Amino acid sequence: MGINAPLLLVLDLVGTFAFALNGALTAVRAERLDIFGVITLGMFTGLGGGAIRDVLLDALPPATFIDWRYLALAATGGLIAFVLTRRLDRIAMAITVLDAVGLSVFAVLGAYKALEMGFGVLQAVIVGTVTAVGGGTIRDVMIQRVPTVLTSELYAIPALIGALCAAVAYEAGYQGTLAALAAAAVCFAIRMVGVRFDLHAPQPPGQHDD
Amino acid sequence: MGINAPLLLVLDLVGTFAFALNGALTAVRAERLDIFGVITLGMFTGLGGGAIRDVLLDALPPATFIDWRYLALAATGGLIAFVLTRRLDRIAMAITVLDAVGLSVFAVLGAYKALEMGFGVLQAVIVGTVTAVGGGTIRDVMIQRVPTVLTSELYAIPALIGALCAAVAYEAGYQGTLAALAAAAVCFAIRMVGVRFDLHAPQPPGQHDD
Amino acid sequence: MGINAPLLLVLDLVGTFAFALNGALTAVRAERLDIFGVITLGMFTGLGGGAIRDVLLDALPPATFIDWRYLALAATGGLIAFVLTRRLDRIAMAITVLDAVGLSVFAVLGAYKALEMGFGVLQAVIVGTVTAVGGGTIRDVMIQRVPTVLTSELYAIPALIGALCAAVAYEAGYQGTLAALAAAAVCFAIRMVGVRFDLHAPQPPGQHDD
Question: Which regions span the lipid bilayer (chains A, B, C) (predicted)?
Fold first, then answer.
């Protein structure tokens, strides 16, 4: 199962492209980068989570590094962000939705990969979450920003819940494409509700009045 | 040997917990993080050094990633830091002492792991030092701080000396728990003397008057 | 082939030393570091690119980590930068030239290593570029700078072109030392022209007037 189902593969590629596009856009707004920098940060955002996943799972070389489709889509996303920066503002919501698709698919497929390799539920949840948020974290560190995933928005939490749903379903015997899509839908729904209502994870006590 | 001795395992777990607690405390004071960010940075601080060690030694997946006790203790340390930030100030010295225990045990056990896998003394000293200071370095990079280990305090030097003592003793045939504890005690003593007298490593010439 | 040719090995070692020296000099000018920090950042600059290369290629443990000559030369470069910071300003151009040698050799040998392990041209070009610019990128992240390779100067582009030349020549059957040196010479020439005329890669449209 996992990435063998054509629908999941397509979603994984869509997610890679959306992450790269959105990641490069974020980078180009925050810092004065050249074309190499924008494409590189797009590729890091789209491929970085999967690379960390494959280090943790001892599944090197990274799957997204040896498959030219992932490399090409990530580079294309970065290039489009470089060329069309200003025009893309008009479709910001569409990009946010695609980014949420990427978050959901990465979280679920990351967890599945861990489970298929024989790791436990705890490891699968960690790996799914890392796959989903790792790329954006690397990008933020590169452009000198505290990773937004650590400070604000409901971004990592939906990924974690999606990975958890996928892992529990997998262990209960639901290992097909439908179960994966259902777990991804849970992540997607929570993320979009968070975007709509601007929800945040709790802050440490005593800091609310900063 | 190595981590098989129960006493060393307990000390390694204590060190993981102390690193996570101390690391999350440092992070929460420096940056406005949400609960996910605090726990994540606690886990990075507690587990990151061992992960880099296992990349360098080709011992993936990381040992601390597949053992749930390390994951649980690191997450618990981060959670406690999140909840009790202000109260923990009262036991700052106790946390510093526990952190020095972690530094010492990580340096020695990191060096031992390299030696047991057949690496040389030079590699063992590097790996021991990286195990001890790698987690805090990752945390500092995440919260946009130049890693303190590169700029101030006697923190990496005791780890390096502890790893060196462990490696030399190991090569001389002293490979038991007692030798490991003695090497860790050297590291611990130098670290605590550094804390007590606020010692620093030398700065580049001509910069003292900055 | 690859690193087996004595001339290429010498150039690789020279490049490691030059990267470490130049990297540590950059670090010591940007931040107040202690001796451990300066040597560490020199070693990261000299050895980091090769380490990322070996993660991507699943060739762990990193080749530069198990060969003491690389470790010793990188540490020596950092130590010299620590001791002689101010005097080295007089030979800034010589250091820039040596750094360009390192860039060229790292790019070509990185690409060759990928090809010899059976990876494709696309992967070889990525790996060559990463080998050449990865170390400086890690250093910049550590000292809280947006990696210069993402923002300015013709630095990554010559590495990419050199790796591409090497990969194309390799696939066309030119796999000897001469072909490697020719590809490295292309990278070196572009880099030095860029230094001489202060050339930069294109910036995103609409940002030129910032």
Answer: 6-28, 35-56, 68-84, 91-112, 118-138, 150-170, 176-194
Using a CB-CB cut-off of 8 Å, the residues of chain C touching A83 are: 204-205
Residues of chain B with Cβ-Cβ distance to C62 below 8 Å are 56
**pLDDT tens profile C70-107:** 999 999 999 999 999 888 888 888 889 999 999 999 99
Q: String of b and e for C134-159 (b: at least 16 CB within 10 Å)? A: bbbbbbbbbbebbbbbbbbbbbbbbb
CA distance A114 to B59: 17
User: How confident is the model at residue C4, as a pLDDT?
Assistant: 64
C147 in helix, strand or coil?
coil
ipTM at complex level: 0.88
Q: Do C32 and B210 touch (CB under 8 A)?
A: yes
A141, B28 in Cβ contact below 8 A? no
Write the pLDDT tens digit of every residue in B146-177.
Answer: 898 888 778 999 999 999 999 999 999 998 89
Q: Mean of the per-residue pLDDT values for chain B? A: 90
Mean pLDDT confidence for A189-208: 82
Residues 6+ apart with CB under 8 A from A50: A62, A63, A64, A70, A106, A110, A131, A134, A135
Ranges of beta strands (E only) in chain A are: none
User: Can you state the percent helix, strand and coil of chain C, rounding each to 5?
Assistant: 80, 0, 20
Which of A33, A41, A79 has the highest number of chain C CBs within 10 A, making it the mutation to test binding with C? A33
Per-domain residue ranges of chain A:
2-197
Q: Residue C169 and residue C178: Cα distance in Å, rounded?
A: 11
Contact C166, C128 (CB under 8 A): yes
8 Å CB contact of A142 and C149: no
The Cα A45–Cα A95 span in angstroms is 14
User: Tokens standing for B41?
Assistant: 């940075």
Q: How confident is the model at residue B106 (pLDDT cuts 50, 70, 90)?
A: very high
